[in-house]
Write a structure and sequence with these properties.
heterodimer; A: alpha/beta; Rossmann fold; 2 domains; four-stranded antiparallel sheet; B: mainly alpha; ABC transporter involved in vitamin B12 uptake, BtuC; three-stranded mixed sheet; 5 strands; 69% helix
């Protein structure tokens, strides 16, 4: 469904990604783990077109999207839950969701809204509350809900567990697996390797802008090197 | 106390540096040469008193502000005077009705001067509401808004003078042209943010003014354009044949038009013109209010706000920030164009002096004082900012000083503006 073919990305003169090839098949959860500065977010942002890949190709559903404008990429069935949630603090929950469904046709819109409220009953309770006044976990739910509003085929999650309490993290990961059961394809970028790998069908390990390992989630979870580097021995 | 003392010395020093050369020294002529002399002892003592006052205010800042905050109601001064939030919804309709009725009856209850002033207030309300889209909603700091105002005004002035077009034909055109300028300006500034955007728009404002000053053949330069016809009231004539004519509010009408008093068979009253201009401005303000309220409720309005709050999140949702910024700029500019068109018609004479940077600042002050994004706040602030200097006319050269003082006090009292928008901007702690 999604594939990166030998992607190189630069920030100015500094090369952040040194030829990354990676693919995500329809209906699976693929996770990307790596330390700070390994290039996880950069890879995700390259997919979104900001920054652009300096060479290589990003293919999504058989289409080359490497050079498409960001706005077009984000409307073509990809939704991203950005790092740090980035909900609109001054807008209410409903308005935030409205922004997510900006390009969703009106007939589908309310159906999707109901679906999101069903997925996160908490959001329904707080419909008219401002996004910025909610707890971190609720904001993360809102960010995911907002992304779902556009009916994505592929959901990109950038560190959804960032700064959340373990119990909330569990909830979020439960939701992610529920989404998979409903047929969503998910690309999960995580520092929380343990939980991400448990959930994922396959995983990639990124180090200094290169993919150093690729295997099923279960295999990576028991891999000696991965355990040492990311799972605390 | 220690840090207070140093800041008090610093502030007093700045006051001295600012005040002493300006007030304490005088250039006088002696024969053919200029000599520098010290001012009279009274002026010097005023300077000394001023410096001392600044010193002590800075020194006892906490105590003074503490006293002030006792008087100070909770954030959003005016909000507290209003009824409780839950009752407000019920009161909105009668409240709006009351304001509309008062606004409509105003010219008939007040004398000419008050009506004239009210018309000026209405122009500033229109400008404030327009800029509110750009600054308050979309969060794009525009310091050259007056340029669009000028475009609107010159559109009408030039078309009326050269082609004899009527006010009603020029009004939409003025808005359109201003919108076009907004669109054109929008393109280069799209990639800029915050301070950089402010500087570019500031430059644009100056470009327009300097152009108007120097395109002497077209705009008559600093001498301006005079004799701009007043707006007419369209009416349907039944004889000799059915046609639309313009009613003029002067004693005698120009070619093709009929004086208002003759049409209705009443006696001529020069005050009618003022009343008509006021009512026309009122209609334009209501139109502006209505359109902008609708826009705010439409997806595009929400997109403006979302863009102000988080540009990256907006992009992640597939929104085209270029299009959103452009639409805010363009629509905001269009309302300045309308206001400018009306301004030209009301004044009858315009020159580039009406469109200086200070005007931009005043309009921006209206938006900021009113509470970014809040329409009622903008209206209140426009009334305040236009009327206070008029009331303070007796103070003559100290008017500017009072204006500044008012701003400082406002920002201490209610930093979010008079009536902050219902949903104030909240910063997220985590990034």
């Amino acid at each position: 469904m999604l594939s990166f073919e030998n992607i190189h990305t630069h920030y100015g003169k500094i090369e952040a990604l040194h030829g990354i090839s990676l693919n995500v098949n329809e209906g699976e959860i693929v996770t990307l783990i790596g330390a700070n500065g390994a290039g996880k977010t950069t890879l995700l942002m390259t997919l979104c077109g900001d920054p652009r890949a300096s060479s290589g190709k990003v293919m999504f559903r058989g289409e080359d999207i490497t050079h498409k404008p960001t706005a077009d990429i984000m409307r073509s069935g990809i939704a991203v839950v950005p790092e740090g949630r980035r909900i609109f603090p001054g807008l209410t929950v409903t308005e935030n969701l409205h922004m997510g469904g900006f390009f969703t046709p009106k007939e589908d819109f309310y159906k999707t809204l109901d679906y999101v409220f069903e997925l996160f009953p908490r959001l329904k309770e707080r419909q008219s509350q401002r996004g910025g006044t909610m707890s971190g976990g609720e904001q993360q739910m809102l960010a995911i809900g907002r992304a779902l509003m556009s009916h994505p085929k592929l959901l990109l999650l950038d560190e959804p567990s960032l700064g959340l309490a373990p119990i909330i993290i569990n909830q979020i990961f439960d939701t992610i697996s529920q989404l998979r059961e409903e047929g969503m394809t998910i690309f999960l970028v995580e520092q929380n390797a343990n939980q991400a790998l448990k959930l994922a069908d396959r995983g990639y390990v990124l180090e200094n802008g290169k993919v150093v390992m690729e295997d099923t989630g279960a295999n990576l979870l028991v891999n000696e090197d991965v355990r040492k580097a990311y799972l605390g021995g | 106390m220690r840090s207070n003392l140093s800041s008090a010395f610093f502030a007093a020093g700045v006051t001295f540096i600012l005040a002493f050369p300006l007030l304490g020294l005088q250039l006088t002529t002696e024969g053919v040469s200029l000599i520098l002399a010290s001012s009279s002892a009274t002026t010097l003592s005023y300077v000394a008193i001023g410096v001392l006052a600044v010193f002590f205010v800075q020194l006892f800042k906490e105590q003074i502000l503490g006293q002030l905050s006792k008087v100070k109601p909770k954030p959003g001064t005016i909000s507290n005077l209003l009824p409780a939030e839950e009752n407000r919804a019920k009161l909105v309709k009668p409240g709006v009705l009351f304001v509309v009725v008062v606004a409509l009856l105003w010219p008939f209850m007040m004398e000419r001067g008050a009506t004239d002033l009210a018309t000026l207030v209405l122009i500033y309300i229109m400008l404030g509401l327009g800029l509110n889209i750009v600054v308050g909603l979309a969060g794009l700091l525009d310091l050259g808004y007056v340029a669009f105002y000028a475009v609107g005004a010159y559109t009408y002035a030039l078309l009326a003078e050269n082609l004899g077009w009527s006010f009603w034909a020029c009004l939409p055109l003025g808005g359109l042209l201003a919108a076009l300028f907004g669109f054109v300006l929008g393109f280069p500034v799209l990639r800029l943010r915050g301070d950089y955007l402010a500087i570019v728009t500031l430059g644009f404002g100056e470009i327009i003014r300097i152009l108007l000053n120097n395109l002497t053949e077209l705009t008559n330069g600093p001498n301006g354009i005079g004799g701009i016809p007043k707006p007419t009231l369209p009416a349907i004539q039944t004889e000799p044949d059915v046609s639309i004519i313009g009613l003029e509010f002067s004693r005698r009408a120009s070619e093709g038009n009929v004086p208002f008093h003759e049409f209705f068979g009443i006696s001529y009253d020069p005050a009618m013109k003022v009343v008509f201009l006021y009512l026309l401005a009122l209609v334009l303000v209501f139109f502006t209010l209505y359109v902008i309220r609708r826009l705010m409720r439409m997806p595009v309005g929400r997109a403006w706000e979302a863009l102000r709050e988080d540009e990256i999140a907006c992009r992640s949702l597939g929104l085209n920030r270029t299009a959103i910024k452009l639409s805010a700029f363009t629509i905001g500019a269009a309302f300045a164009g309308f206001a400018g068109c009306f301004f030209a018609a009301r004044q009858g004479f315009i020159n580039p002096e009406s469109f200086v940077f200070k005007e931009s600042v005043i309009i921006l002050a209206i938006v900021v004082l009113g509470g970014m994004g809040s329409q009622i706040g903008v209206i209140l602030a426009a009334i305040l900012i236009t009327i206070l200097p008029e009331l303070a006319r007796e103070f003559q050269e100290y008017r500017e000083l009072m204006f500044g003082l008012m701003m400082v006090l406002m920002m201490i009292w209610s930093p979010q503006g008079l009536l902050p928008m219902k949903r104030p901007h909240i910063e997220l702690k985590q990034e």
